[in-house]
Amino acid sequence: MGILGLAVFKVVLQLIVTWLETSFTFGEALVVAQTLSLLFLDAVLSSVTKLNVSWMPMNLVVQRSEMNVFMHALLFGMLMIGIVLTPLLRGISRARGKEDQRPFILLSLAFFASTALIVLFVIAPWTALCLDANPFVWTWNFVVEPGFRRLFIAGFWASVIALGVTVAYQKFPATTDSTSLNMKRKYFHILATLMFIPGYIWDPDFMHLAFSVALSALILLEYIRHFHVWPLGSHVEEFLQQFLDRRDCGPVILSHLYLLVGCALPVWLNRIPQQLFLGGLSGMLTLGIGDTMASICGKRFGRIKWPGSLKSVEGTVAFVTSVIFICGILSATGAISPIGPAKWIRLSGCVALSSLLEAVSDQNDNLVIPLYTFALLHLTLA
Known about the structure:
Elements: H1 2-19, H2 26-50, H3 66-84, H4 86-95, H5 102-131, H6 135-144, H7 149-171, H8 178-202, H9 204-226, H10 233-241, H11 255-269, H12 277-280, H13 282-301, H14 313-332, H15 341-360, H16 365-380
Helix pairs in contact: 1-2, 2-3, 3-5, 3-9, 4-5, 7-8, 8-9, 8-11, 8-13, 9-10, 9-11, 11-13, 11-16, 13-14, 13-16, 14-15, 15-16
């Protein structure tokens, strides 16, 4: 399995740096390639375990939760759709500029129909094999089983998204100066905080599944945007263009994907036997609270710059104090377990180290900081 894992990693990394070189830094490409290769091996082991293969060593037999099965199915299923339907998507892109729009519309409809067929006849059967149940029936029962709680959470998320996107679409200025752009991007960090922290506290399992669904939906939207699939492609492109900065210079727009992945990865990784509830919140706290406050306060009050960086000491202080303050509120209200004096010191050290990484790293904060913070918290608090 080690050889297979290394081979998958090298293939994925080569594909990223060859096809999407301008969208990823090499550090980001390494993180993405490692994540995808590990999840792929986990999915293979989970599948082989369900097939009851006799030659499978017992130490490789794994039983994964339903949440992990859906994460594998949704993520790799959506990536497979992009790979399999690449010729069709390129045909859509070529047909877009022609005077006769009928081929463009028909090819776009063919893309949606093909996507539905792959979901129904490839992804769903594999999910059923690993789940030992019909995935659509299981999902319905999972959502409605506890009564109205999960329906309420889903309605809450939908309301925040609808209101937030409407405000962004109608009220944000068209200017792209650095201050305005920074405020617009951090606006979505705040929306993520409003949705994800309550969702994770109320129902971690539902949050785990929702992250998987949301990531697959954003990947699908990126296909639609990049290839201008009718009728949504141009609208998605127009909406996202107002939030782009210098890091979104490649063919793939990654900042919004990284924000979601940065919040989701700690939740997904926290599904280990010795769970640390605060570890699952590390992405939401560092991105939704710390990074947002560091950026806003640094832009407004920052005077002292870190050596070799455009980030300010004032922004770093805002990062640390805001995260510690929110952790204190969560602890005082019982949302997380009470934190004793010794753990407060270790927690403060973890947050301080994360804030320093935010100040000096040239990688995408949304991807790197949550993983770094998650590792620190498990090393010091678990």
